[in-house]
Design a protein that fits this description.
The protein is α+β, with helices and mostly antiparallel strands and 481 residues long. The chain has 2 domains: 1-25 and 338-481; 28-327, 6 Propeller (Neuraminidase). The chain contains 7 helices and 24 strands. It has helices at residues 2-23, 341-346, 352-364, 370-383, 387-396, 398-415, 426-480; strands at residues 34-40, 53-58, 64-68, 73-77, 83-87, 100-105, 111-115, 120-124, 130-134, 147-153, 156-161, 166-171, 183-187, 200-205, 211-215, 220-224, 230-234, 249-252, 258-262, 274-278, 284-288, 301-306, 312-316, 321-327. The chain has a 4-stranded antiparallel sheet, with no helix packed on it. A 4-stranded antiparallel sheet has the order 2-3-4-5, with no helix packed on it. α1 crosses α3.
C-alpha cells in the first residue's frame, strides 16, 4: 500500500495539475442564468400539437425536430416554433414508428431516431425520406430492448439500450454513403454499482469525449471514458440540490456544463419538475422550474436541447409543449479563468502535445485506481490554494514562466515513459511507478546534489590553491628582501 501511494504521489502531482486544466478552466460562472423566452405546442394530433413529446434535436440551420411519441411521428419546426412538416405513422415498416424516443442529427443533417417499441434505429434526411435502419429485439450485439437515446461524435454512435441496461457503441462516420451501425462494443448490466444501470434512458458526450449516462431509475448521472471505463457519478433520490426524481435526459452546453431534466419522484411527488445544472464533475451550479403549466413551470420535463448559443429547449411532456429559455447576458466583468501552472507554462510550446498525451495517461491509468481518484481529490483541494497564484506570476513575468517550463521538462519527459508501456496490473503499475519515482529523485535531487558537491569541492580547491599561491608569493617576496 505504501509503495502504491508513493507511485500515486509522484505521478499525480503532475497529473492532478493536468486535471485542473479540464475541471477548472471549464467550470461555469456561479451566476449562469437562463430566462423564459417562448413556447409552442398543445395537446392533440394536429400540426404543431403533441401527444407525449419525447426527443428533440436541431439541424445545422436551426430547424427543430421533435419525436411526437404517442402520435408516432416526427414533427419539424423553425427555431421559433413555426410548423414546417412531419413524417411517420404507427407501424413497423420503413418510416413508420412505435413510440419513437430519442433523436439526433449528425454533421451532414442526417436524422437518427430511436424507434423504441420496434427495437430499432431509423435514419432519414431532413425531409423525412427514409435512408436505412438497423437493430431488432434481443440482447445480443446490435440488438435492442427499447433503445431510448442516441448521440454521435468522432465517427461513433452511442445508444442507450434501456431494457438491456447497457450502452452500445457503433460506427457512424457522417457520410451519406456510409453504412452506419457496425457494432464496436458495449458496457453495463442491471444493478446499482459503479458502471451498472437501472433503465439508462439518455446518453451524451462532452467536448473531451467523455460519455454521460442518465441512469434514470438509480437517480444518478454516471460518467465514462469513450470506451466505457467508469470515471465518476453523482446523484441520489430526493428533491435537494444534486438529488433527482426520474431523469429523462442529460445534455451538455458549450462549456461542458451538464443539464439534467429532473422529473417527478417515483412516488408521484411533483416537487422536482426542474432543470438542474452542474459542472462536468457534478458540482451543483443552479436550477430552475417547478410543477405547473405556467411559463417556466413543468409537468414531467423530458429531453433537453442546447443550441450553439447555449439557449435551452425543453420538452415539457405532461404539458405537451416545448419551452425555450435564453441565456441571460452577464454584464458584470469576470476575471479570466486561470488554468494550471504546468499547462500555462507549456502553452503553444513543443511540450504541449506531450502534456495532452499525459492527460490521456491520467485518464487511462491513474483515474482507474481507487487510490488515484482519492489522492487527486485531496490534492486538488490543496492545489487551488496556490495554483492560480503561480499562473498569475507566470503571466506577469515571462522569465519566471520560462523557468517553470525548464524546471518541469525533465519530469514531463520521465512521465512520458508511461505512454509507451502496457500497464494492465497493479504489479506493473508499481514497477513502472517506482522506476519513475527513482528517475525523478535522481534528476531532481541526487544528480544536482552530486553536481553541487563537486562544484563546491572544486571551488574550495581553487580557493585553497589561490591561498597557497598567494602564500608562496609572499614567502618568495620576503626571501628576495
Amino acid at each position: 500500500m505504501i509503495m502504491r501511494m508513493m507511485f500515486i504521489l509522484s505521478v499525480s502531482i503532475v497529473m492532478a495539475s493536468l486535471f485542473i486544466t479540464t475541471t477548472y478552466a471549464n467550470a461555469a460562472p456561479d451566476n449562469i442564468q437562463h430566462e423564459y423566452a417562448y413556447k409552442w405546442g398543445s395537446s392533440g394530433s394536429g400540426n404543431g400539437e403533441f401527444d407525449g413529446p419525447t426527443g428533440i434535436a436541431m439541424d445545422s440551420i436551426g430547424n427543430v425536430y421533435v419525436t411526437d411519441s404517442s402520435n408516432h411521428r416526427i414533427q419539424k419546426f423553425a427555431s421559433d416554433g413555426t410548423y414546417i412538416t412531419q413524417w411517420g405513422s404507427f407501424g413497423d415498416g420503413e418510416g413508420e414508428f412505435d413510440r419513437p424516443g430519442g433523436i439526433f442529427i449528425d454533421c451532414n443533417d442526417q436524422v437518427y431516431v430511436a424507434d423504441r417499441h420496434n427495437h430499432r434505429l431509423q435514419k432519414f434526411n431532413t425531409d423525412g425520406e427514409f435512408i436505412e435502419q438497423w437493430g431488432s429485439f434481443g440482447d445480443g450485439e446490435g440488438e435492442f430492448k427499447l433503445p431510448s437515446d442516441i448521440v454521435i461524435m468522432d465517427a461513433v454512435m452511442y445508444v442507450a439500450d434501456l431494457g438491456n441496461h447497457r450502452i452500445q457503441k457503433f460506427t457512424s462516420d457522417c457520410r451519406f454513403d456510409a453504412q452506419d451501425g457496425l457494432f464496436l462494443l458495449e458496457w453495463g448490466q442491471h444493478g446499482n454499482n459503479d458502471g451498472e444501470f437501472n433503465a439508462p434512458i439518455a446518453v451524451t458526450r462532452d467536448s473531451t469525449g467523455n460519455v454521460y449516462v442518465a441512469d434514470s431509475a438509480n437517480n444518478r448521472i454516471q460518467v465514462f471514458t469513450s470506451d466505457g471505463t467508469y470515471i465518476t457519478q453523482w446523484g441520489s433520490s430526493g428533491s435537494n440540490h444534486g438529488e433527482f426524481g426520474f431523469i429523462p435526459d442529460v445534455a451538455i452546453d458549450s462549456s461542458d456544463n451538464v443539464y439534467v431534466s429532473d422529473g417527478e419522484l417515483w412516488n408521484g411527488n411533483p416537487n422536482n419538475n426542474r432543470i438542474q445544472v452542474f459542472t462536468s464533475d457534478g458540482t451543483y451550479i443552479t436550477q430552475w422550474g417547478s410543477f405547473g403549466d405556467g411559463e417556466g413551470e413543468f409537468d414531467r420535463p423530458g429531453d433537453v436541447l442546447i443550441d450553439d448559443s447555449d439557449n435551452v429547449y425543453v420538452i415539457d411532456g405532461g404539458n405537451n409543449r416545448i419551452q425555450v429559455f435564453k441565456v441571460v447576458a452577464d454584464t458584470e466583468p469576470k476575471p479570466p479563468k486561470p488554468i494550471c501552472p504546468i499547462a500555462n507554462a507549456v502553452l503553444d510550446s513543443k511540450l504541449a502535445p506531450l502534456v495532452q498525451e499525459l492527460r490521456e495517461t491520467r485518464d487511462n491509468v491513474i483515474l482507474k485506481t481507487e487510490s488515484g481518484n482519492s489522492f487527486m481529490n485531496t490534492f486538488l483541494a490543496l492545489y487551488y490554494t496556490f495554483g492560480p497564484t503561480i499562473v498569475h506570476w507566470e503571466n506577469e513575468n515571462p522569465v519566471f514562466k520560462e523557468m517553470v517550463k525548464i524546471t518541469i521538462t525533465p519530469m514531463l519527459a520521465s512521465l512520458s515513459i508511461l505512454n509507451y508501456v502496457d500497464i494492465d496490473s497493479e504489479g506493473k503499475m508499481l514497477a513502472y511507478g517506482i522506476g519513475v519515482i527513482l528517475l525523478n529523485i535522481g534528476m531532481y535531487f541526487i544528480a544536482p546534489s552530486i553536481a553541487l558537491n563537486r562544484l563546491s569541492k572544486k571551488f574550495r580547491k581553487n580557493q585553497l590553491d589561490r591561498k597557497n599561491h598567494t602564500h608562496i608569493q609572499k614567502t618568495n617576496h620576503r626571501k628576495e628582501i
